[in-house]
Amino acid sequence: MPSTPLPANPKSPPTPSAQNGYPARSVTELLHAWSAGDAGASDALVPLVYAELRRQARLALRREGDGHTLQATALVHEAWLRLDDQHDANWESRTQFLAVAAQTMRRVLVDHARARRALKRGGGGTQVTLSAVEQAVAASGEVDVLALDGALARLAILDPRKARLVELRYFAGLSIPEAADALGISPATVGREWAVARMWLRRELDA
């Protein structure tokens, strides 16, 4: 499907019905239509999810240390292009879409950090503050985004669901009930696994 451009002015996104001739439809309905190959559905979807994608981007970038060059708008646009390029994506719900968007933003940030490190010929990596989300992982407050990515990759080998949970909580900023919905498990299970994942990552990142 062709890439769908995002609105140039995030404060004034296009109106779905006016731009594309769509009656008002829910995010889930549009996601289903997009999965079925309706490129116009993605046009209508943009203004309905743009604000949430910007919130996710700001949340991710707020943890970066001084000197990062990505802005929230650029992160959203790059993530959207990657999402729009997933021709075989099976979009099921708003929560699932935002979870995948968070994962995509993680990949954008990691790729960006690797490119910056290469330009600096092995210099320090991009720093992200982990204490911003319930002091989620490291008591020290900051960790290299590449170190975090490596730790999450190792956790995914040991326990894929816990790695996904950290991604949902950390990068997407989902609440425990929202993460439970995305993972298809109970909030109580999320609470227990979140505590274990935090301790595991803290140990890995402090090593």
Describe the structure.
The chain is mainly α and 207 residues long. The chain has one domain. The protein has nine helices and two strands; from the N terminus they run αααααββαααα. The protein has helices at 16-20, 27-35, 39-62, 72-84, 94-119, 145-158, 160-170, 176-183, 187-206; strands spanning 127-129, 142-144. Helix 3 (39-62) packs across helix 5 (94-119), helix 6 packs across helix 9 (187-206) and helix 8 (176-183) crosses helix 9. The termini are far apart. Mean pLDDT is 75; it is low at 7-23 and 125-142.
Question: Layout of SSEs?
Answer:
Blueprint: H1 16-20, H2 27-35, H3 39-62, H4 72-84, H5 94-119, E1 127-129, E2 142-144, H6 145-158, H7 160-170, H8 176-183, H9 187-206
Antiparallel strand pairs: 1-2
Characterize the overall form: globular
State the helix count: 9
Taking all Cα atoms into account, the compactness measure Rg is: 18 Å
What would the average pLDDT be, to the nearest integer?
75
First-residue to last-residue Cα separation: 45 Å
Largest sheet: 2 strands, antiparallel
In sequence order, what are the helices and strands, one letter per element?
HHHHHEEHHHH
Strand order of the largest sheet: 1-2
Structural class designation? mainly alpha
Quote the beta fraction.
under 5%
Helix content: 55-70%
Low-confidence stretches: 7-23, 125-142
Q: Count every beta strand, where a strand is a DSSP E run of 2 or more residues.
A: 2
